[in-house]
Amino acid sequence: MAEPVLEILELRKTFGALKATDGVSLTLMPGEIHALIGPNGAGKSTLIHQISGSIRPNSGTIRFLGQDMAGLDMAARARLGLGRSFQISSLVQEFSALRNVMLAVQARQGSSFRFFRPVMGDPTLTEPAMAMLERVGLAGRAHMPAAELSHGERRQLEIAIALALGSKAFLFDEPMAGMGPEGSKSLTKFLDGLRHEAPILLVEHDMDAVFALADRISVLVYGRVVATGTVDVIRNDPEVRRAYLGEAA
Ligand SMILES: Nc1ncnc2c1ncn2[C@@H]1O[C@H](COP(=O)(O)OP(=O)(O)OP(=O)(O)O)[C@@H](O)[C@H]1O
């Protein structure tokens, strides 16, 4: 069987007397979208922050590509390909989509010697950047300033940047937030294809998106995973229906 890209074992985090993460274990497998759902305050964001490195757990293990993340800060985890999310906006608004991705390609190549060369004409930067825009479906917007892209297109651009920087897994905390119905539909389609580039741990309240995308769903209630399974298993789990989905499921 394939090794998990991300493996979380018995993670615990308390805030005073509150057990925000109460012994969570889960895996993210290659090519997978694993959705994390649960009521408000269940501990979803706290879990994502511990994985990306912005919150330190009290105990437990986080392994990414087989490596223990303990002691690594956010920047170190990001360098290994973990921890980019929509909540950290990495765009230079007045630069074109292409130039934004070129900055990431340049950062990855660590090529400071290029400072004195005309960046926009450098094919070692433009070609991989353009290829990346094609992979995320934004090639037609290459020369448009980031500020003029739609909300959904900006997210596609952020993902192109993350891929150019070497992201090997995505942690997304409510990517559908603030999108209209059309935007959610096209972002759903986009994320569907993205799983083949890198697996996704997806926190999302939009259940249409979750049911359309997830290979597996874990349900978090009061900091504990109360169920993990396929969409069908979760939709039909009586405890999950009672605790979270209600009759809407
Ligand atoms: N820095 C903090 N200090 C104290 N309590 C916190 C802190 N961060 C989160 N909490 C508490 O931990 C619990 C889990 O919060 P968290 O934001 O992780 O939940 P969530 O499942 O992401 O909720 P939502 O769906 O509303 O975003 C909540 O009771 C919250 O009030």
UniProtKB/TrEMBL annotation:
Highest taxon, organism lineage: Bacteria
GO molecular function: ATP binding
Keyword field contains Membrane: no
Residue intervals passing through the bilayer: none
Cross-referenced Pfam families: ABC_tran, BCA_ABC_TP_C
Alphabetical list of SUPFAM superfamilies matching this protein: P-loop containing nucleoside triphosphate hydrolases
Residue ranges occupied by any ABC transporter domain in the UniProt entry: 6-247
Keywords of the record: ATP-binding, Nucleotide-binding, Transport
Signal keyword on record: no
Protein name: Branched-chain amino acid transport system ATP-binding protein
